[in-house]
Predict the structure of Amino acid-binding protein.
Amino acid sequence: MFLLRLIIPDRPGSLGTVATALGEVSADIHAIEIVEHRRENGTAVDDIVVDLPPGVLPDRLVSACNGVPDVEVIWFSRYGAGGGLHMDLEAVEQMTSAPAEAVDILVEQAPSVLHADWAALLDGTGSEIKVALETSATPEFGQLVEQWLPLEKATTLAAPDHKGLAESVLVAAPLESDRRVLVIGRRGGPEFLGSEVARLSYLANLAVTIRATA
């Protein structure tokens, strides 16, 4: 499974042309998501998850997309977070079905929702900052947690020069308190877009609201 992030013309037919090009290299499209509309220049950023049959080189995906006029590949990588991109609704459904665990569910689902590698909930409401919950592949933070709290609103974070984080891109959002923060990381990119920060902010606020109903 592979994830392609593309800039394409924001006009009818553009996505269909890309899909046709991918089909010509035997790629099976599992899901497409419009990440961001850039109305100032008439383009859109789309994420496409595809699968390739054995024997087909992944580089052919990039070549196929670059062969479409006015299409640019800005990110390409293996996609290990599952095949679907409709994870926002799935996360909300899980949270509403178990309101008392809504925050924990969001932490667990965050890597899939935002196509990231890991997520961790930092809790600094006590005498010291601790990692209250983390997904697999979360790096060791050490004293770095102290520079991330408090956090007033969802935002991207500058990656520190630290083993396991130096080449990562980070985004974070407060949960209930500016000292209880969800941090999410991607190794190597792509950068989190403004629309993704907004989605995280919405889901974080929703998780807190849902848990309050428990």
In short: The first strand starts at residue 2 and ends at 9. The chain is about 30% helix and 30% strand. The beta strands are 2-9, 28-38, 43-51, 72-78, 118-123, 130-134, 155-157, 168-175, 177-187.
